[in-house]
Structure formats: structure tokens, C-alpha cells
Amino acid sequence: NKAVCRKDASNRKWISYCAETHALFCSVCLAFSKSDNLFVNGMKDWKHVHVRIEEHERSNAHEKKTHAFLLWSSRSGIAGLLKDNQMSARREQIKKKRLVLERIVDIIKVTGKWGLSYRGGFDSEAAYTLENTTADHRTFLELVLLLSKYDMCQKEHLTHCIEKSKTLHKAGGKGRGSLSSFLSKSTVNMRIDIICIIIQETIAEDVREAGIYSVQIDTTQDIMSKDQCSIILRYVTDIVHERLVALIDC
Questions:
Q1: pTM for this prediction
Q2: What is the rounded CA–CA span in Å between residue 179 and residue 189?
């Protein structure tokens, strides 16, 4: 164990041990070296193990193979595995996905601004049902369908999602599989949570700048006679602000 560690306590990750031959190997040299050396054939000089390891680590051969490994590692990502035409196609795909997601987020923001419910009956929320114009897909999906009539990017994405969902449904599959539709309740809820965090951070920054604030707590019952507690912050900048920061079930 001491041989694996340097004087600065960092590990020599290139060292590999073979229990069968009771020898040390250099994994970097094994992968990139075309010639033999002590740590390619297996180092068994345990009496001078520290000396041999330091000699190998300082050698030009090991240094060159380390550079080769780092160069290979930097190219082993997605960009390094794809050809130029594939990378261009991937960049275009990412660009389209971002444009679609921007429109989805705007629809979520508008729906929340109006105070409308996002989802509806579960029987009309699946992507393969969106071609049915007689069904009530509720606010979020109806706005998505409306926008797709006038936006080619949204229309292409929606058409792709519907066809993939229909194929998966006919095959008896459940869920979306590997399809990224951005239309599921999980996507909507995730974006709402993110927007909520951004709003809370903005309010917190305004309160810090105001310096003085008050907290108002009020409870009321919903239609199920269940108490809900609203927490409101009041503070003054150039005008008086009242901000609802939380709604808690009691």
C-alpha cells in the first residue's frame, strides 16, 4: 500500500497488481506501449519496489505513454467518438431540443400566470392521444397543440413524439421508453419547481435589500375542509410589496 502512494499522499493510479503472478504492472504502459519494460512484463523486485516504481514513473517512456493516455481520454467523450457529419447532426439536434424546451417553459409560465391547472384526465395525456382533436387535453397540452399549428419547430417535435408514442403503445409498452417528449407531468413539475426556486431567490434578494420586512401567516380551508396555511412577506423598496412565498397543508 505504501508503494502505491507518493510522498504527497496521492495515489499512483497507474499501478496494477496481479495476484496470480505476484507482480506489479503499469496499466498505462500496457495499453499504449509497443515495447517491453519492467512494468509491462511484470515487476517482481519487491526488495527494491519503491526504487523501481519511482524510476519507472520518472522515465521518458512512462511519461510519453501518460501523455498518450491523457490525449486519448480527452478525445474519448461524445465529441471524440463521432465523426464531423455526426457532430453537426448532433449539434443541430441539441439546438432544436433547446428551442422546443424554451417554448415548453414559456407555456408553463403563461399557464401559471393565468392561475390555470396544467393537467387533466389521464386518459387524454398520452402523446399518442394528441391527434384526437375532440378530446380535452387540458390547458398545458392544448397550448402545446395550438403553438404547433404556427411553429414548425414545435410541430416537428410533436409529430415525432406522437408517432413514437403510437408505435410504443401498439407494441404494448408502458411509459415513454427512451423518448424525450418534454410533455410529461414529470417535465412540467420539474420546470415548475425550478421556476419556484428562482422566484424565491428573487424575493429573498429583494428582502435583503429592503432590510426590514414582516411575515404574515393566514389559514383557510379548501373545498375538502382541509386547512392550508399561506405565508406572506411584506417589505418596502420604492413601493410596498406583498409576496406569497409558501402554501403549506396543516
A1: 0.58
A2: 18
